[in-house]
Amino acid sequence: MIKLLILTFLLLNCFAKDFTISSYNVENLFDLEKNNTEYKEFIPYSKSMWNKKNFDIKMNNTIRVLKDLN
User: Fold this and answer.
1) pLDDT for 64
2) pTM for the whole thing?
3) Residues in a beta bridge with 17
């Protein structure tokens, strides 16, 4: 029985492939229009400085990270 388990493990290990799992917080990307569901740090066009320019910066950074992950 133990030999069968070792053989199964070795066979599965031979065909294993690497993969990457990632997570990225993009909740505030949807806060460019005020609809009273925003975090107070991301109220658009206020003292929080959340605006189209900062949105574009965050979007480009997100794209760069995803490309780096391939």
Assistant:
1) 92
2) 0.59
3) none
